[in-house]
Amino acid sequence: MKIPSYLKKGDTVAIVCTARKFFPEDAIPAQELLESWGLKTKLGRTIGLDSCQLGGTDVERAADFQAMLDDDDVKAIWCARGGYGTVRIIDMLDFSNFKKHPKWIMGFSDVTVLHSQVNVERVASLHAIMPFTVPRAPEAVKETLRKALFGESIEYVIPAVSYNINGKATGELVGGNLSILYSLLGSKSSLDTDGKILYIEDLDEYLYHIDRMMQNLKRNGYFDGLKGLIVGGMTDMHDNEIPFGQNAVQIITAIASEYEIPVAFDFPAGHQKDNRTLILGSQVEFEVNDLEVKLKFL
After folding, report:
1. 278: three-class secondary structure by DSSP
2. I need a surface site. Which of 11, 100, 121, 171 has the fewest CB within 10 A?
3. Which residues contact 222 (CB under 8 A, 6 or more apart)?
4. What region holds the LD-carboxypeptidase C-terminal domain (predicted)?
5. What gap in Å lies between CA 57 and CA 52, rounded to an integer?
6. For the residues 27-36, what does the mean pLDDT come to?
7. Are 280 and 119 in contact (CB under 8 A)?
8. CA–CA gap between residue 216 and residue 46 (Å, rounded)
9. What is the mean pLDDT of the chain?
């Protein structure tokens, strides 16, 4: 696994649209945040483009992202917001130069498409807040992104919940949004989870569909060699008029408990204000006990 160079003051971070549209005035809080860390910003050509829901056409978004991948002066690429659209451009991108000169790709939600693809390319990336979410992100959460970008040590210790499954594991952290991981099954962007620790989160889904996605990850072997499971926010879940009969925790536990691996629920990452940065592709130590959950990036 290649770890991109950590940033230093004076480095440039690009902000681009890979999915939903985003406008220059909306980027100001993110630019101010980066500048407070001593970094420079570069707005991509897609910032301000309006193609229905998307920040430009597929060709425009792919070209903008490719330009930032190939720009040696750009040390990190921050996806402006999620929604939908990244999968429409992923096969237009050429990662050959990126693999020789890796740089940080940052974001969450729909950006899971990129996280998965660059993991296949064996480059680490940052599951983190995006410019769209900067205004509502707590200072402590922003600080986790700064630490990750500048290569400072990160370790999270959170209180345990009664429905966790205790255990210890060490391995490479992979994952992201459950719906996106599910949508990538069978493609060249699908993750290899063997010997790894999987992180998942989701938003605004029906409970039966959480079960459908988990069942399909299971059938595709995602849990066969898995060493641990971290479940972030399962936010704003829905049920049908006739209840499914299980909540998100019960659905996930029913599958994960078959594999005798540690499982941590309610981890502070995902579609919530407390969305702490995760270094995907990094080796981590993961421990779940009766009192707390520890996640240390090595």
Report:
1. strand
2. 100
3. 191, 193, 198
4. 170-285
5. 9
6. 98
7. yes
8. 35
9. 98
Indicate if 183 and 290 belong to the same structural domain: yes
Both 88 and 171 in a single domain?
no
Active-site entry in 60, 109, 172, 282: 109
In the beta sheet, which residues pair with residue 77?
A: 14, 105
The question of whether 201 is a catalytic residue gets the answer yes
pLDDT tens-digit readout, 184-238: 999 999 999 999 999 999 999 999 999 999 999 999 999 999 999 999 999 999 9
Structural domain range at position 111:
12-150
Instruction: Tell me how many helices (H) and strands (E) the chain has.
Output: 8, 13
Total residue length of the chain: 298
Are 143 and 204 found together in one domain?
A: no
Active site residue 271: yes
Q: Write out the two tokens for 161.
A: 């919940």
- Determine, yes or no, domain membership for 236: yes
Among 125, 205, 271, 287, the active-site one is 271
* 160 touches 292 (CB < 8 A): yes
Residues paired with residue 280 on neighbouring β-strands, in sequence order: 125
Catalytic residue among 125, 127, 179, 201: 201
What is the number of structural domains in the chain?
A: 2
CATH code (residue 180): 3.50.30.60
52 within domain boundaries: yes
Q: Of 100, 128, 150, which residue is a domain's last?
A: 150
Residue 1 lies in a domain: no
Asked if the structure places residue 87 within a domain, the reply is: yes
